[in-house]
Amino acid sequence: MTGRSHLVLGVACVLTAMSAAWIAPSFEGLCAGALGSLVPDIDTERSMLGSRLKPVSRLLARWCGHRTVTHSLFVPFALAVLIATELGQKALAGPLGAFLIGYASHILGDLPTGGCWALYPLSRNRIAFWPYAKVGSFREYLVLLGSLALLCVLSYHNLCAQPGETAHRAKSVRFIAQERLRAYEQADHQLPRSET
Ligand SMILES: [Zn+2]
């Protein structure tokens, strides 16, 4: 995928995660997701981020090549475990979690556009998904549009489901409160009346 497509997909994935209340909605979260969606391509100086950090991207390209180690799902997974261990699970609901979602979205976005080492270190095979779409081609935009449509449906579903859940929870709380009130009233009736 092109850098622009990765940016759009990464931000859309973070927005969907926000709609599901996995990530706290914030501008920082969106920026972190956008950054995460560009980081895996730091292994090539032709990418948006790699062209700005040429020494790093040249070193990585020489060391492991494009779409290899930085394109493994193990990287965001290991980072998530590290963040949860060091900073607590709550940290994953903030910009750090958004960064990891953006990162993972990049790997998934590269699967139909040539593939990558998604399962490294378990496998050094380039894993690719059908339908194959050349980077920057019309097909890539179709894949992107399809993914965005799916994310829109998921976000809509999440946003519609949450008020229902809240209402359900509110009803439960009201029910418990009514039950307690009834129990107090019954207890009050059973108290011996004071004689005057
Ligand atoms: Zn890539």
Mean pLDDT: 88
Number of domains: 1
Distance between the termini: 88 Å
Strand content: under 5%
Number of helices: 6
Write a concise keyword list for the protein shown above.
mainly alpha; 0% strand; elongated; binds zinc ion; Metal-dependent hydrolase; signal; YdjM-like
Description:
Helix content is 61%, strand content 0%. The protein contains 6 helices and no strands. α1 crosses α2 and α2 (27-36) runs parallel beside α5 (95-110). It starts with a helix and ends in a 6-residue tail after the last helix. The model has no long low-confidence stretch (mean pLDDT 88). Bound molecules: zinc ion. Zinc ion is lined by residues 40-41, 67, 71, 106, 110. It comes from Swaminathania salitolerans. Keywords: Signal.
SSE blueprint and pairings:
Layout: H1 3-19, H2 27-36, H3 54-63, H4 74-87, H5 95-110, H6 138-190
The protein binds zinc ion.
Zinc ion binds at residues 40-41, 67, 71, 106, 110.
Keywords: Signal
Signal peptide: 1-23
Pfam families: YdjM (PF04307)
Give a concise summary:
The protein has 196 residues and is mainly α. Helix content is 61%, strand content 0%.
